[in-house]
Structures are given as structure tokens and as C-alpha cells.
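From the pipeline queue, job 12 of 40. The input is one protein chain; the requested action is below.

Action: predict structure.
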Amino acid sequence: MQIRCTCFPPQKEEHIRKNDKFNSWKTTQFTPVRKAIILAAGIGSRMGSFTEHSSKCLAPVNGVPILVNTLVNLCESGIEETVIVVGYLKEKIYDMVGSSFNGMRITYIESDRYATTNNIYSLWLAREHMTEDILLLEADVFFERLLLDRMLLYGSCSVAAVARHQPWMSGTVVNLDDDENIAELIDGRRQGPDFDYSKVLKTINIYLLQHDFLREQFVPRLEAFVGAGDVNQYYETIIHDTVSTKQYAMKALVCDDIKWNEIDDENDRLATEYMFLSPDERYEIVSHEHGGYWRYGFADHLYLYNLYFPPGEVLSYMKNNVYDLLQNYPAGQDDLASVMGLLINQPAQRIVVGNGASEIIKILSGRLFNKLIIPVPSFNEYVNAAPEGKVATFALDAPSFELDVDEFAAEAFRCNADMAVVVTPNNPTSLIVSKHDLLRLAEKLARQNCMLLVDESFIDFAEDKDLLTMENELSRHDNLAIIKSMSKAYGICGLRLGYLLSANKPFVRAVNRELPIWNVNGFAEAFLRQLLRYRGEFKESCRKVQNDRDNLYRNLSSIPGMITYKPEANFVFCRLPDNSMSGPEITRRLFTKYDIFVKHCAGKMLPEADRYLRIASRTGIENYRVVNAMRSILVREMAVI
């Protein structure tokens, strides 16, 4: 078969020579590795419907089957013969690969016991080929050729490819000694709930095994296992036995800078596709998603949350009680409102607890009110949740973006709105509306039978929060309600918690009637109950966010031509220099070149929207990086102009 994987060009030899770490292992003379063994007999049932009709190793990654990628890399690394141990739907592999691949000889070994044995048996079937140095690979690993290039430079020692353990990984891990030798292999059965993954590396399931190790240690032990009928072990057991007893030293090739992934299921396959895309292709995917960014590894300066909360004790509590939280029904609305009331010092009768603020927004915008009005630019969800024709917008004038409450109230009257929404601090401007203005607005709207909904989702990050919040004014204004997302301030976007607060009891009951009996999950409930113990830690975390944000604001302000707005939330709103590229262009450049994702405001309702960015504050180091990246892009561009 003649095929070439155009997705991954061959690595240039000079690129490898640049790495002194790997050059230190290179010997002046050694016998080149000419043979590889690939284990491809298994069913791969976790791949779902794909393996009903094909072998798992033929699953495509951006159109390239896993096995084809491996064979291309082996060919280009100088391997002359590859032995493939096949079993399940072996004919599919025969049809795709054939007896030759780009001039490399292909030898097949068939396992008729693939459904009842593990990989130690598959490898035993290929024992006659283990009389020389070999590369041993499993057929479900998609990787770039650089891994083999580096591995083959080791020359005269056996090597295992490993990488820093990531949260989504599972399977065998290793410990290293001070000489970067593998000290032990630890399979999944020995990794308990308290296992410390920060001290281990994940095996990639690609090995260079030298002939002396094979002859003296590996093959005899392989024969012993299978001879004793122990065919449900993994070959890693043999490697562990030899290295842990110091009968053989095996080096570790750490591949943190090399792209690879082990594909066990469809999630793995999709993650691998993303990994091997170009930066521009990745950007196109991410820019159309609304979360789940933790899977991708870039710096998320788009979504807005507190990185200093919750404390480790809360996470430990959740971890220690995970089975109870999974298996039991959560509390109902009355209990949740009581717990929330203790936290915010408000009567439970005033509170509705939501599965995030967005659940409550959907009820308010889409069901309970005839016409909603909101100043723009603002949080888009209020407009998006409203039925067509049921929302009006009130433009905030640039460049100040300050709310004129008298004009806003007059516009609410003109459009016959029965609910007016004010987000303070506002998103995306990070600007506050004074309490004095909000009280005057509430009084004006009351005369028009219009409810005022104040969104205080970011108020915990504002200076003098206690003097700005409207929570203590509820009893004097029957037309006043507060909504708050807890995701931002408490760092729990994945748990989904928010609440509505109002002294208008019929209004609160009307919102409650729109909720399902269990609208908040058990993990969110448990988190809420734990918060009562950590009020001091929460306040301290907000002070840390304020400090980082203020530094981010000052540093962004120092970029020539940049206009920044003094923030009250945990993000900075800024206008790009007049002669610079647009917000969408800057956002793409930051992502593709620096792995940083920010929010451009081209989708917001404001004049020259594509000139504005919203940059979430993260840690001090991350903020330093985003400012430097912005400065580098803008200064270089201005120099060209």
C-alpha cells in the first residue's frame, strides 16, 4: 500500500539535533532499529458503534486512521518491517494495509483468542520476532513522528515513552528515579481514590526494547506467564517486575512537548482531532462553543470566574461524599432557600434558588413578563431568552457607557415595559451603577407598574460592595428584585448555582411555580451547605481577584493607544487603538499564536463593537502574559503601519 499522511510532515533532522537533552543519549555507533510490533487484536468496545463494523485501530482522526498514522511514522523513521498482531475484524486491516506499506514489509500474526485474553498473549504470539531491537506500539495511540525520532536517538538502551499525567488520562503510570530511569509501573488497579498523580507520568504505550533485554528478561518471563495459563495479564507487568527489582534499567522519554493521545472512546477521538488541528482550525471550533474549555489547555480569559475559590477543604468534602451525592436525590426548593437565606442573611421566603442564574433569566424573560427593557451593551442572555418582539434595548452612549436612569425610565414607559433590567457591575463594561441612581430608578418605575431587576452577579468584586448592593433595600421597594449568578464569584461555573431575591412574595411564588421539583443537583446543594463555613475565605479570595484585576487594568492601560475603563468586576473592558486590527482579528491572533482566548465584543450592541475587548482577569502570571501578548501584537502592528 502506498499512502502518505499529509497532516503531519516529517520532522527535520536539524530540529532534533537542537535538543541537547536527547543528543546526550545519542551514541556514535549503534545498530538501527528495523522492526516494529503493533498490537491490534482487541475489540475496542468503548468506541461504540464504530467497532461494530470495523477495527478500533481504523478509527479516523481528521480523516487519517489511527493505524495508518502509526505506519506512516514508522516508514519515515526507517523501519523495514512491521508485525501486526490482529484479531477482531482482521479482514478490515488486511484490506486497508495489505502486505506492504510505502515499501515497508507488513507481517500479520492472527490471534484467535482476542476476546478472552489481554495484550500479554498477543505479544507472546509475536515472540519469534523479538530477536533484535524492536519498537513496540499499541494500535490505539495517535502520535506525531517526532516521538519516534527522539526515541531512536537513545541507541543502546530500552526506552519507554511517557508524559505528564493529565486529569482525563487513565491506565498505567510510572515513577522515575533521579537518573530518569523507570523505577516502577503502576497499573490502574493500584491507583486508589487518594492516588497522587502529580508525582507520576503516564505511559504512552510506545517502547523501544533492546535485544539483550528481550533475550535475557522479557521473552523468558513472557513464556512463563503464558505457559502458566496467565493470559489475562498486561505485558507492562513484566517491565514492572524487571525495573522495580533493578534487574534492568529502562530509560524514560518524556514527551510533554509532543502531540499524542491514546484513543479508547469517542471522546478521546474527538480530543485527538482537536489536538492535531492547526491553530486556526482550533480557533474556529472554540469560537463556536460555549464552555468546556478545560479540555483544550489554553488560557481562558473569556469566561469570568474566581480562581481563588473554593478552598481545598470544600473540594475534599465533595470528593469524600461523592457516592452519597450521586446516589441520593437533592433537596427541594424550600430547603435550598433556607440554606441560601443563612448565607446571604435574607428570609427564605424571598429567595428562589436556580440551576444557575440562566434558569431564572429564562423564566423572567420568556414567561412572566410581557415586555423587558435592558441597557446595552450588556449580558446577552436577557435578550436571547426573550420571545421575539418582547424585549427593548436602551443604548448606553459611548465613550462613557454610563446609565442615565431618568432617560432609561422614560424609555421603559414609552415601550410599555413591565420589567427593566440593570446589570451592575455591567457586562461587558465592568462599570457600576450607583445605589442612589438605582433607588431613584426603582421609584420611577414603580409609578409605571414596572419591576426593576438588578443583576449583581459581579458585585462581590466591586469596591465597597456592602454600600453598593440593593439587598438591604428590598423591603422598601415592592417592585425591586435582585438576581445573582454564583458561578462567577464562587468559581463554580460547572455546578450551576444562582438565586433570585425579592420582598414581593407573589412574584417569588410565580417564579417558583415555573421550576421543576428538583432543579438543583446534589453537588451544587452540598457546595451551598459548605459555604456557611467559609465566608472569611470567600471575602479574601475576592480581595485577591481585585488585586489581580487592578494590576491587569494598569498594565493594559500602559499599552500605547489603548483605552481602558476602570473595572469594578473581575474583567477589564477596553477599546483598541484606532489604527490597530479589529477585536475579532486580535482575538484570533492571541489564540493562534499565544494560546490565549479573550472576548471580542463584535456580537454586542454598541457602536464600533469590533473595536472593543473584554479581558477576564486570571492569576497575576496569566494576566502578565496576556498583556505582553497584546503589547507584542499591537506594537509590532503599529510599527508596520
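Job complete. The first helix runs from residue 13 to 17.
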